[in-house]
Amino acid sequence: MSLKPNNLLPLFSYLEECHEGDLLSFTQWLDKAIYMFHYLPTDTFSETERQNVCHVLMELKEAVLKIRVEQDNCA
Asked: Out of the domains of life, which is the source (predicted)?
């Protein structure tokens, strides 16, 4: 399945409704989630699972920040 902009509408709606379109707010919450992951009990997730989840969250954060930078450059 290839993603199309319409497939991402629920994500866009979430960002608008929960963060009022403020991408920096969203990235700050991602940072907090990544930080908290490191304080879960060690038997909750394997080290590899913890690293993989943090990696996915970091990649999502970087993608959102890239969108933010591109928006600022177009304004």
From this structure: Bacteria
